[in-house]
Amino acid sequence: MDPRSAVLTTVALWEGGDAVRIVDVPLPALGPGEVLVRVLLATVCGSDRHTVSGRRSSPSPSVLGHEAVGEIIEVGPGGAVGDDGGALAAGDRVVWGVTVACGDCDRCRAGRTAKCRSVRKVGHEAFDSAWPLSGTYARHLVLPAGSTIARVPVTVPDALAAPAGCATATVMAAIEAAGPLPGRRVLVSGAGMLGVAAVVAARDAGAAEVVVTDPDPGRRGLAARFGADAALGTAEPVGEVDVAIELSGASPAVARCLDALDVGGRLVLVGSVAPSPAVPLDPERVVRGWLTVTGVHNYEPRHLRAALLLLDRTRDAVPWGELVTPAAPLVDVAALLTGPALSAPRAAVAP
């Protein structure tokens, strides 16, 4: 008998619909290159709320959750390395990438590991699969060999670090896709967690002007506190911009972004991750205006490191702490997933 099987951890097991059960399960023995992490703080991404509400499909039962910061407890045989190439060890405080890629398929070889043909994702794997402890709504999770794992600077608090592996890293991928920003006029569509982070990242990248649109006045006020030059309602005129980053996923918002692009403008779509009405596209305007429309889904390993560096550079410049609620216990996960949205963009859980 494996002595590890007698050691238990606690998970919030999602069983479909709004059913979430707190259960104790054995910790598995680690395979080569695997890493056992104790979750210090997890944040509740909107995609998990969409899963529980039925807007997004995911296997069940499973342990949901993918945004978190944790402490390494054990590294499997052969060891594991972080994104900086250094050996990982017990006691390291880390964040990790959402996707785990094979590294060998045509997409991985082309540098699109987030779209690996056999991709696995933190918090998206069935509990009866080979990776049962994949989610962060738990006291522990196991990161498979090949995971992107980054040590967190000591100067970055848990509440800032936890969303880095999803929201902040995705924003950094969008900023990269937007191209050079010094002197550029940037429109950020949507002022949720990603939108506010995008304001900070665009400013940090040298944008001359950052305008935010959102229907919610509270979110607009939040965007202003994070450095937006203007925070407008969705019916207010935006003016011409060089870059638009669309994070809401709403088809009317996509259309507004297209309409706002000046000659040579670039639209980066990020929020359109669920079926929605089609948006008309005038090909003549695209051609004559030298417009570019591109999409970003998840991110590459370099964007996780870029997210941590952004958080470290700006930790005292903007009120990052306003984005995350005080931590609730693990038993409250069900209420956080199914209850009304909280005032802050991210609810926190301390398993």
TrEMBL record:
GO function term, MF aspect, one: oxidoreductase activity
Domain Alcohol dehydrogenase-like N-terminal: 31-148
CDD domains: MDR_TM0436_like (cd08231)
Stored InterPro entries: ADH-like_C, ADH-like_N, ADH_phosphonate_catab-assoc, GroES-like_sf, NAD(P)-bd_dom_sf, Zn_alcohol_dh
Protein origin, superkingdom: Bacteria
Residue stretches spanning the membrane: none
Domain (Alcohol dehydrogenase-like C-terminal): residue spans on this chain: 194-310
Keyword Oxidoreductase: yes
Keywords: Oxidoreductase
Pfam family membership, one: ADH_N
Keyword Oxidoreductase annotated: yes
Cofactor: Zn(2+)
PANTHER family xref list: L-THREONINE 3-DEHYDROGENASE
Protein name: Putative phosphonate catabolism associated alcohol dehydrogenase
Annotated organism of origin: Krasilnikoviella flava
